[in-house]
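Quick sanity check, Amidohydrolase-related domain-containing protein:
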Amino acid sequence: MSQLIRTLKSHIRDEVIKKGGWVNSHAHADRAFTMTPEKIKIYQNANLQQKWDLVDEVKRNSSVEDYYRRFSQAIELMISQGVTAFGTFVDIDQVCEDRAILAAHKAREVYKNDIILRFANQTLKGVIEPNARKWFDIGSEMVDMIGGLPYRDELDYGKGLEAMDILMDTAKSQGKMLHVHVDQFNNPKEKETEQLCDKAVEHGMQGRVVAIHGISIGAHPREYRQMLYKKMKAVDMMMIACPMAWIDSPRKDEVLPFHNALTPADEMIPEGITVAIGTDNICDYMVPLCEGDMWQELSLLSAGCRFTNLEEMANIASVNGRKVLGLI
């Protein structure tokens, strides 16, 4: 057989390897592989906010060893694809307590010669309610990066901005980067990325804050988006895109700027904003069809945004991931 013609996938993969290998910048490995055919109705019938509490079943019934098995399976899946660094949120709250993070640290020790692991604390219960705050404070001492979900406290108490203050104060006092889920619901009423920029300035956290998802940015008019990108650039805010996690956003009847439910990397990168990529949830209640395939994530982002700058695609999958994880 004559020599096969190289595909763009082969070219980009080789460039990623030259740049140090793939980086999965965002995941929830502690809950990976928890979806089963019997549980698919949870995904079909519940919205994301409801799933934040429905996963309590998994958390409550998981031992340290259960968590360790899931971490190991996710880590080995990453290693098999050539991932050299892996950032994952870990649930630490009043339901699972510290079982997941103990398993995470065990996994880091076992795989320390194979992959770099970085952990952030997931705050599905928020940081305002006293018991939730207690576990946030405990968890923040056990992770490499502070993690946040301010919409949980906005939903429950109307205190999303106060939650951002707590996240910023904690990250700054501990000298850690801050990774925050923002603008997840493809809704122009959401302006969490802009709020996060303002809070970064207020707390002197420029260059230390990473936004995750930013789906709702595309639902805003061009003028707002351009203003936001300038603000993000001014505070050196980085962004992590997780395409498979949000491509399933439900249809809506609202009249919005035409866009895909993807982080607008095609607009951010030319504005000098660092964009990295992650798998987010892998085969769990939130995203049952995500298989943790790094090429699938990158190709979906590229196709959905019509962004085919090959050099920047390789950067998204490698160098930019090391930046958002604080490795360079």
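Posting the structure with no commentary besides this: The first strand starts at residue 22 and ends at 24.
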